[in-house]
Amino acid sequence: MLTKEWSDRLLGFFKGLLDFYKKFLALEREKYNILISGRLEQLDGCMKREQAFSLKARGLEQKRQDLLKEAGEGQSSFRELIGQTEPSLQPNMRKIYSELSSTVSDVQRTNKKCSEITHMKLGYVSQMISKAENGPELKQIYGKKQGQAEMPEDSFSKKV
C-alpha cells in the first residue's frame, strides 16, 4: 500500500495529466473544425501546437514512469494503483481515472477523424491535379506534350 504522501503525489500528478489531456482534446477539436470548414491556412499553426502537445505527452509519460519507480511500483498502471492508494483517496482516484480514460479516448478518436478527413481531402486534391495535368484543355493550350508550348513561326525578328 502506498503512503498518504505518495497517494497525494500520484493524485496530483493524475489531476495535472487530466488537465493536460483536456487541453489537448480542445486542440484536436479545433483542428477538426478547421479541416471540416476548409480553413486550411489555419491548419499549419494548429499542427505546430499539436506537435508541442505530443512532445509534452511523451515527457509526462516519462515523468509518470519515474514517479512510479520512485514509489516502488515500477510498471503499474493507473487502474492498478487505485487499489494501492490511501483508502480515503480511492474514490477520487477512480473519478480521475474515469475522466482521464474518457478524455484520452476522445483525443484518439478526434485525431483519427482528423486523419481520415485529411486523407480524403488529399485524395481529392490529388485527383484534381491529375485531371488538370492530363486534361485536353491543357494540351490545347500548351501543345501536344505537357509543358511544351508551340512557338509561332515568326515570333522573333530576323534581324536579331
Short structural description:
With 160 residues, the chain is mainly alpha-helical. It is built from five helices and no strands.
Question: How does this model look, in words?
Answer:
This protein has 160 residues and is mainly alpha-helical. The chain has a domain at 4-110. It has five helices and no strands. The longest helix has 45 residues, at 90-134. The model has no long low-confidence stretch (mean pLDDT 84).
Q: Which helices and strands appear, and what pairs or packs with what?
A:
Layout (H helix, E strand, L loop, with lengths): L3 H34 L5 H29 L6 H5 L7 H45 L1 H7 L18
Helix pairs in contact: 1-2, 1-4
- Taken from the alpha-carbon principal axes, the silhouette is rod-shaped
What is the C-alpha radius of gyration, as a whole number of Å? 28 Å
**Overall strand count:** 0
Instruction: Please outline the major beta sheet.
Output: none
Instruction: Supply the helix-strand structural class.
Output: mainly alpha
Run of helices and strands: HHHHH
> How many distinct helices?
5
Please state the average pLDDT score: 84
| First-residue to last-residue Cα separation | 95 Å
Oligomer: single chain
- Helix fraction? over 70%
Any low-confidence stretches, pLDDT <50, length ≥5?
none
Relative strand content? under 5%
